[in-house]
Amino acid sequence: MTYAETMATLDTKREEIAVLRREMRALQAKVEPQVVRDYVLDGWDGPVRLSELFGDKRDLILIHNMGTGCPSCTMWADGFNGVYDHLASRAAFVVSSPNTVEVQKQFAKSRGWRFPMVSHVNSTFAQDLGYRHRSDDVFDQAMGGWNPGVSVFRRDGDRILRLSDADLGPFDGFCLVYHLFDLVPGADPNWNPKYSYA
């Protein structure tokens, strides 16, 4: 195929994806929210309730991060850091991980992260929301069985509602890096993110 023919075919595929995404947004708009309890998490200034993470916003975007042991979760968080101001203009935005607050503080400083973080290490929060599993896989065991993802919550009076959630992983819709790599023919299919590339 010529360059022009290939690009035309790819444009058609991209439009098909855009149609699917519109259909997904329409389904999302009809979802029956899930009531979630007001978990107590470890905040950087002491215990903090899930309800407090909203600040003055109605909605909360919470990232389920696997912690400092996962270079992929670190790459996702690096990306969220770059768009944090945009995200925070629409909703509260918080990253949650199983690391202790002390570890989070040190790691966030080393990465230049600006977004708020909480630890769920002393709660069943991540597990209850489906972001921890048990597996015989060596990597899963090393990572404590944590799963990466995102949950979106809404404050409704005294209730906290989960409106949606999605897993995070390679080639998902939440990480620009993989989509740019898709445009590079012959890119290394085994590429994995690193903490640094010095």
Q: What can be said about this structure in brief?
A:
With 198 residues, the chain is α+β, with helices and mostly antiparallel strands.
Question: How would you portray this structure in words?
Answer:
This protein is α+β, with helices and mostly antiparallel strands and 198 residues long. It has a single domain, classed as Glutaredoxin (3-Layer(aba) Sandwich). An eight-stranded mixed sheet has the order 1-8-7-4-5-6-2-3. The chain is globular.
Descriptive terms for the model:
alpha+beta, 198 residues, eight-stranded mixed beta sheet, Glutaredoxin, 36% helix, 7 helices
Question: Helix and strand layout, with pairings?
Answer:
Layout: H1 3-29, E1 34-36, E2 40-43, E3 46-49, E4 59-64, H2 71-82, H3 84-88, E5 92-97, H4 101-111, E6 117-119, H5 125-128, H6 138-142, E7 149-156, E8 159-167, H7 176-182
Parallel strand pairs: 4-5, 5-6
Antiparallel strand pairs: 1-8, 2-3, 2-6, 4-7, 7-8
Anisotropy-based shape: globular
Low-confidence stretches: none
Q: Just give the CATH class.
A: Alpha Beta
Strand order across the biggest sheet?
1-8-7-4-5-6-2-3
Number of domains: 1
- Please estimate the helix content: 25-40%
The CATH architecture can be named as: 3-Layer(aba) Sandwich
Please name the fourth-level CATH homologous superfamily: Glutaredoxin
* Secondary-structure class: alpha+beta
- At the fold tier of CATH, the topology name is Glutaredoxin
Mean pLDDT metric: 93
Number of helices: 7
**Order of helix and strand elements from N to C terminus:** HEEEEHHEHEHHEEH
As a whole number of angstroms, the C-alpha radius of gyration is 18 Å
Task: State the end-to-end distance.
Answer: 38 Å
- The proportion of strand residues reads 15-25%
